[in-house]
Amino acid sequence: MSAPTRKRRWLTIWAITASAALVAIPAGATPGGNGSPFGVRALAQLAAAREQSVGAITPKATAADDDDGNEADEIAEGADQYAEARTSPGIVAPGAYGAAWTGLTNLPSTKGSWRNITDLPYNSDDSRYRDIDSNSSGGSGDVTGRMAAIAADDDGYVYAGSAGGGVWRSRTGGGRWQPISDKLSSQSTGALTVDGSGRLWLGTGEATTNADAYLGSGVYVLSDPHHGTFSARSRVGGDELESTTIHELRFGGGKVWAATSEGVWSHSAKKLTGAWKLEFAPNPAYLPGGSLASDPSAAYKNIANDIAIDPKDPGKVVLAVGWRSGDDYNGFYTKGADGTWTRITSGLGDLPADADDVGNVTFARSADGSRYYAVDQSPEQLNTNPDSGLEGIYVSKSGAPTGPWTKIADYQGLAADGSALTTSGYMPGVQAWYNQFLTVDPANPEHVYAGLEEVYETKDGGSTWSTVGPYWNFSFPCWSIDPAKQTGDCSQTTHSDQHGVAIGRYHGKSFVYVGNDGGVYKRPVDGSQDASGHATDWTSLNDGTIDTLQYYSVGIGKDRDHGGVSVTGGLQDNGQSILRSDDTVMGSNFGGDGGDTLTDPADGCDIAQEYVYLAIQVTQNCAVNDGSWTTDATKATSYNVAPADNATGEARFIAPLAADGSNSSTWIAGGRHVWVQTHGYAIRSGAEWTSVYDLGAGRTATAVAASGGKVYAAWCGPCNNQGFARGISVGNEDGTGWHDIALPADGTVPNRYLSGFAIDPKNADHVFLAVNGFSRHWTEGPGAGVGHVFESTDGGTTWKDISKNLPDVPTDSAVVTPNGGLAVATDLGVVYRAPGRTRWQRVGSLPAVAVLQLKLSPDGGTLYAATHGRGIYTVKVRDLR
Questions:
Q1: To which H or E segment does residue 815 belong?
Q2: Whole-angstrom Cα distance, residue 116 to residue 182?
């Protein structure tokens, strides 16, 4: 999912004084506390973490993780939890999202239209925000949301496929982007490629096994990608690949091959009608319609990662098949003389044949057919080696995908070649199951770009490597926190966590384009490097015309300095964005993953921002800081105020946080316990929280809300589809009256993930409940029930299903508008029920993007929608009619 511990921890580890002399930070002088992943808990490690010399500073990080975890673990856990909300208590049948999209687009529409307010540059190095938990000066520059795939041609056209915000086109070699897939029912990209005749192929459904992405609706093709846009009519074949993820599309022998979450499929690349052919699935009984399709592990039993086709004989094909955490079926397969696919057990050379060592794999072939390259992530390494999950990078000098293969890189070697990841517990390839790309320069078969967490380049077929796109600049002697230098004396790097790559030409010059958790970047293919092997010529292409930011939350408050409002929100792997009313560029005042957000309606610089697992940071000046805290600890302007469930790990990855609707100084947070604090934004310590209710061992809060002293808390436990259970607890902020509601056994409230409450501001006993997942028609699990929106008028004692004509679509958040209407956020947009009505209308015409949170402006006149893939949108409440 994201980039948790690293972002918050390491900036502080690398921080130094202007004179390079270490400053001792007295306990309590600045925010922080034991067990926190934030700022100053790492300052105590500074003396041990740095070696100093005259004229240069060479930092060496130490393993200072008080949370005893690493980023790869947290990404996997976050992915699992995001998926749980949509799949538990069972397995979702294919076609669910397609049917939901059809139903949603057929709803009548309200008046009014959405306005995107985040379609402007987002500068992750904004010099205004250099407080202890910002990543500003790291070197990523302008960023946007995660890019899963990139394609480019020789005419200056670049195509960027995002994780949840669709496909975008640039006609200018990058920049000035336009969306070209908004008509599709899936905005999640898995694969994107231009074929030999110039057609653009799109495989939907991001295949990083990172579940804040969505299943796709199949494969689409544009015959004229310079001008056209994708539509339902451009789908290849039938619905065979609906509700899958697609890792790669490859071409050979007149066919297009698709590596999917349900095996390997093929189709004619010329005649685009007719069904896809299932070439190989290692465990067909687990496929939809199979005897084991309802098994909880079915989604992981037929994962295909890539296809390698012999350029000299297209009939010779090698399949890379396997689940990244390991399974007996993992391995490389080829078709025998009898037409059956069999595992290759020997003869591959250095490339492993054992199932334990074959996980996520990416192939790349040279244009002249003389070389094949591969990168392999190992389940064994993932499960046993805390430093890296990378098995290696390999070359077949015969040009044949059957090898023999020779290893040309491992994680220790890459770490020694200018990497920023040299710390035990976090080295190159630690997330190789999540981060992978590979491509070969069309003009030079020995010139290769490889992407893991960083970008690596070799010009001699793998004999030597350079880290041309380091993770960030904090660890290098050229780095400085000086705001006047933006990234110190270092050159700009790319954002971390690489996913897509392409080489194309613009105005006769070749460029390499990379896509990662921060968007799209480019540099000349024959670009320049400094003495450390770091590229000096990366350019961010995230110019604000491409908005694929993945928000979890949004907060709005009055801008005390400039009038209007200040808008902030928590993002997947891009920290916390802040947009003041006079800004032309957004800044980032917190790093890492941004979870839930609270903003004082009366003062938009009073912000509480959740990291992960209820790690909460508060600021009362928008976290404006010039970095002077590195020499004077009292100048830090952010404070760690995490409740105790953060330290014990008894909270969800993105845990619920809310303010009392009638008193913004009273906050409620949910982990295993329901926590309350009454000091508002003046809180300075996690000790100021009070546990008012213990939900019970194994239970964690999924939603909290309060008004007038009354608190509602929804929980799950277990939260996965193996014994899934959910419930609602109700009580008062002073700790009295707490009890578990006895939800009726008749399924009035389904046995699915309870994702949000909306309390009537005029009556705290009048409350609405949003329920995630799909109804029993699509969910193969116990008690899935029906319906997505429920109403109680007696404080939660009894509930009524008010879903009516609402399509069967996961719902995520709800808000009662000042006129008594009800707006609900779903995985495919926003719906609205007008006051006094029972039927639902669709709000505006957003593409098929998940809206994870809705909030109102301080005056109640504007509705804000935090989308997980297309930024933040607003609509006037008065227009919802």
A1: strand 811-816
A2: 15
Q: What is the pLDDT of residue 294?
A: 83
What six digits make up the tokens of 385? 């080696």
Residue 554 to residue 564: CA distance in whole angstroms: 16
The closest alpha carbon to 831, from 770, 773, 753, belongs to 770
- Collapsed DSSP state (helix, strand, coil) of residue 75: helix
Q: Tokens 């294919």 correspond to what residue? A: 94
Closest listed residue to residue 41, CA positions, set 135, 134, 133, 137? 133
For 476, the token pair is 């290098």
Contact 71, 612 (CB under 8 A): no
| The predicted structure's pLDDT at residue 34 | 25
Sign of CA dihedral 535, 123, 864, 712: positive
Do 104 and 826 form a contact (C-beta atoms < 8 A)?
yes
SS3 877: helix
What residues pair up with 256 in beta bridges, in sequence order?
251, 267
Helix (H, G, I), strand (E, B), or coil: what is residue 858? coil
Question: How much is the pLDDT for 73?
Answer: 65
Residue 567: name the closest of 88, 116, 51, 97 by CA.
Answer: 116
Cα–Cα distances (Å) from 36 to 5, 42, 64, 78, 599, in that order, read 10, 9, 11, 18, 22
**What local confidence, expressed as pLDDT, does residue 259 receive?**
98
- Say if residues 744 and 727 touch (Cβ distance below 8 Å): no
Q: What does 156-199 look like in DSSP terms, one character per residue?
A: S-EEEEESSS-EEEESSSS-S-EE--TTSS---EEEEEE-TTS-
φ, ψ (nearest 5 deg) of residue 377: -95, 135
Cβ(148)–Cβ(155) under 8 Å? Answer: no
Q: Output DSSP code: residue 517.
A: T
Residue 296: the pLDDT is: 80
List residues bridging with 829 in a β-sheet.
826
pLDDT of the residue at 77? 75
Return the pLDDT at 75. Answer: 66
Convert the pLDDT of each residue in 68-86 to its tens digit: 334 556 666 777 788 889 9
Helical (H) or strand (E) element with 647 = helix 644-648
Contact criterion met (CB below 8 Å) for 677 and 690: yes
CB atoms within 10 A of CB 255: 18
Q: Are the CB atoms for 188 and 214 separated by under 8 Å? A: yes
Positions in the chain short of pLDDT 50: 1-70, 211
Judged by phi (left if over 0) then psi (alpha if -120 to 50, else beta), residue 785 lies in left
| Predicted local confidence at residue 387, as pLDDT | 96
H-type helices in 45-204, by residue range? 46-49, 71-87, 96-105
Cα distance between residue 646 and residue 660, in whole Å = 21
User: How far is CA 874 from its chain centroid?
Assistant: 22
The residues near 184 (Cβ < 8 Å, ≥ 6 apart) are 166, 204, 217, 220, 230, 231, 232, 847, 848
| CA pair distance 90, 294, nearest whole angstrom | 7
CA atoms within 13 A on the CB side of 537: 10
The separation between CA 477 and the C-alpha centre of its own chain, rounded to angstroms, equals 31
Q: What is the pTM of this model?
A: 0.92
In order, the DSSP letters of 220-283 are EEES-TTT----GGGB-SSSTTTT--EEEEEEETTEEEEEETTEEEEEESS---SPPEEEE-S-
Average pLDDT of the chain is 90
Distance between CA atoms of residues 123 and 573, nearest Å: 14
> CA–CA distance from 521 to each of 196, 307, 546 (Å)?
24, 26, 13
Q: At what angle do helices 71-87 and 4-14 cross, to 10 degrees?
A: 150
Quick check: 81 and 815 in contact, CB under 8 A? no
Contact between residue 568 and residue 578 where contact means Cβ atoms under 8 Å apart: yes
In the beta sheet, which residues pair with residue 771? 754
Q: How many other CB atoms are found less than 10 A from the CB of residue 340?
A: 9
Q: Token digits for 521?
A: 């970047």
- Tokens standing for residue 346: 């020997």
